[in-house]
Amino acid sequence: MGKNNMSDKEAALLAAARRELAMARAAGGAATPDSQAPAPSTAKPGSVASAAAPVAAAPLQAPAAPDMGTRMAMLMEAERLASASRKQRIKRIYLIAITAVIVPSFLYVFISLFRLLMK
Description:
By secondary structure, this protein is an all-alpha fold.
């Protein structure tokens, strides 16, 4: 466990988020999603050019990356789901192991009692 009672994985996620935030701050004036929006069309509303202009004028853009808070929330949710899955698997294994020990023990006891009573 690292500082502040965080697991090593949580500390690594936090360090990665801080590095990414520092890089974003160093980049300075990063474009916002509003500044990447296409400009409104100046064509007349009924013309053929007005229907084709937004499609032709809009450059192909990569989907916008989620902001830092959303990304951290997604990472933490994925980790929570993985942890829950791991806990379920461990519980299932423990249940199988306990059953594998108890059932033969009970069978042995019942068979022994039956043999004792039949003599």
